[in-house]
Amino acid sequence: MGKEIYYYVRDAKGKLLAAVCLMQKETEIWHRGVALCSKRDQFSRKIGRKIALGRAVAAPKSMKQIAHVNTPAAKELMLAHPGIRYTSEVLSATFLSEFEKKLVSKMEEKDAER
Description:
single chain, 114 residues, alpha+beta, 4-stranded antiparallel sheet, 3 helices, 4 strands, 33% helix
């Protein structure tokens, strides 16, 4: 596996909606996995990260659109991060969201310091 970056998406009230895993596979190729939290769930970072990582790993084989996940969390996630359209996807670095590009830049800066 490549380098992994995790982040969490919250709704306007601060409730956790999703865990997102970005996994670098090649220099400019990333896999993204998204774990959405059901309103019936108690969000767990550990479980969310595990699901998001599994979806990032499976991204080349499985690209399920978040729009097909008919939950309030999915709708809020798509509004907050319009670039995220799938629970699993493979994308080039140019298609990362601006927020994700900042995370990647910070990771690269830390790696350069080592």
